[in-house]
Write a structure and sequence with these properties.
Low-confidence stretches: 298-329
Helix content: 55-70%
Structural class: alpha+beta
Number of domains: 4
Largest sheet: 6 strands, antiparallel
Length: about 500
């Protein structure tokens, strides 16, 4: 018993270090991959380091459910690869302890990680997504900081277009400045030219001051009638212009605008929304016959002695209407004026088009609602599948590391990348098929876990039997024997000939 506790401590100690290290590395890689899609929107936004740090922290939290399976897989491969490479695993087996018993402490830890991942996905990730994407949106709508380019007009300041010929190294002294004033929304009616300018901010960066030296201002304005246009020219040695920088401040859009998205909801909220949307789909289908009745307002008269007898045609969404031939013939036999007959036929065509348009719109609405239901269910199942993937990756990584017997970061990283790409590709493919309605949501989201579980049980069985399936000497010996057999058979064929 004491010996087993010592082995458990040894295995856990060998596992925990690589696990936390690989988790941090994987989160960092996934974070870089995610933020690369927003680089152009984030560059030049002077919103402060604290805001960026918070956004990165929230995105890191939202990526944790995806990072944990890869961290478990890689750390298991490294741990048992090192134990096998240094013959520690062989020594443990020679002491009469089975491989399953050696896997027990890490298996318990993987089960705990799976439970924590499920709780984290259900409770923490929705809040992290809400904060991350709301912060990202606030940064998106924030204007970039002032960056005047030489020889190009800058339109970042509301109501002004500024062009400078040269900007000194300090970024504040400008040469040959041209400023168009568009605040009156009357076109290029006012322009200011200056030989040089010096700009700086005041009141904690809320206002930009531009001191202009040796310049002229030109302006046109209308006095009285439209034909009485006045042209003004003014020369100055030194003047100041003050610009408000309120447009460059980061706005605080309330989180309530994003809280209704499915990524910001827990499992119970997703289930409630999916049930509500499903009820809406059922209601839309059931009300089709009632809504279509409004389009069937015509009564066709039969050719009978009692002309007051009429037949009302009713249509259902799933029933095809066949007009009896007697009614078609009756229109021909009756003495109806051509003008009235044309009106009747025109109205019938209009009603038919109205029915088709109504059904097309209702079909599109039903499909959109059904897709929205599937998206909510996909988000719910993802929380379970990514969490269970942590334990499945343990079933793959631990036996595979014991079979390969290679520690370090070389072979384990290669193998973990292969299986993670397989998991990610299967998950994304199944999710796309489930979203499009090709397969059910359950099979679309759980197929990847079932396939990887089969791999894990297969590797576990091979590891228990001390398989050498990754030993190159076995394959070299096999192909050598195969070559000998083929040469022997060819010699027999030659002798018989």
């Amino acid at each position: 018993m004491i010996r087993i506790k010592i082995i458990d401590k040894l295995v856990l100690k060998s596992f925990l270090g690589p696990f936390f290290l690989t988790y941090a590395v994987v989160v960092f890689i996934l974070l870089i991959h995610t933020m690369m899609g927003y680089v152009e929107e984030l560059v030049g936004k002077d919103v402060g380091f604290v805001v960026f740090a918070k956004m990165l922290m929230y995105f890191s939290m939202s990526l944790t459910p995806l990072a944990l399976p890869l961290a478990v897989l890689l750390s298991c491969l490294i741990t048992f690869g090192n134990l096998g490479e240094h013959f520690e695993l062989t020594a443990i087996k020679s002491a009469g302890i089975s491989l399953v018993r050696v896997l027990y402490p890490i298996g318990v830890f993987a089960a705990i990680i799976t439970a924590i991942a499920l709780w984290f996905s259900d409770r923490v990730v929705p809040y992290a997504n809400l904060k991350a994407y709301s912060t990202l949106y606030n940064i998106r709508i924030t204007k970039a900081s002032i960056d005047l380019k030489e020889g190009a007009f800058y339109n970042g300041l509301p109501g002004y277009s500024i062009k400078v010929a040269k900007k000194e190294n300090d970024g504040k002294l400008l040469r040959k400045v041209m400023i168009y004033n568009h605040t009156a929304n009357k076109g290029n009616k006012e322009v200011i030219l200056a030989d040089s300018a010096y700009m700086y901010t005041i009141l904690d960066g809320k206002y930009l001051v531009m001191e202009l030296f040796k310049g002229r201002s030109y302006s046109d304005y209308i006095e009285g009638s439209a034909n009485n246009t006045q042209f003004l020219r003014h020369e100055f040695d030194h003047t100041k212009m003050v610009f408000s920088l309120s447009a460059f401040e980061m706005s605080e859009i309330p989180d309530s605008l994003f809280v209704h998205h499915r990524m910001m909801k827990t499992i119970n909220e997703l289930e409630a929304d999916a049930d509500s949307l499903s009820s809406q789909v059922v209601n839309l289908k059931e009300t089709i016959p009632q809504n279509m009745a409004a389009y069937f307002t015509y009564h066709l008269e039969e050719l009978r002695p009692k002309p007051t007898d009429t037949l009302r045609l009713r249509a259902a969404s799933n029933e095809a209407i066949e007009l009896p031939k007697v009614f078609l013939d009756s229109l021909k036999r009756r003495s109806i004026p051509e003008s009235q007959l044309a009106i009747i036929l025109q109205r019938a065509v209009g009603q038919a088009r109205g029915v088709k348009q109504f059904l097309d719109m209702r079909e599109k609405l039903i499909k959109d609602k059904e897709k929205e239901v599937r998206e909510h269910l996909i988000e719910k199942h993802r929380k379970y599948t990514y969490s269970l993937a942590c334990f499945i990756m343990f079933l793959i990584g631990a036996p595979l590391g014991a079979i390969i017997k290679k520690g370090g970061l070389g072979v384990p990283i290669l193998v973990s990348i292969v299986f993670f790409i397989l998991f990610y590709a299967l998950s994304m493919t199944g999710e796309k098929w489930a979203k499009d309605g090709v397969v059910s949501v359950f099979w679309g989201m759980w197929t990847s876990d079932f396939i990887l579980l089969a791999f894990g049980l297969f590797f576990l069985q091979k590891a228990r039997n001390d398989s050498r399936m990754f030993d190159k000497d076995i394959y070299i010996h096999y192909f050598r024997r195969l070559g000998q057999r083929l040469r022997g058979k060819s010699q027999e064929v030659v002798q018989e000939a």
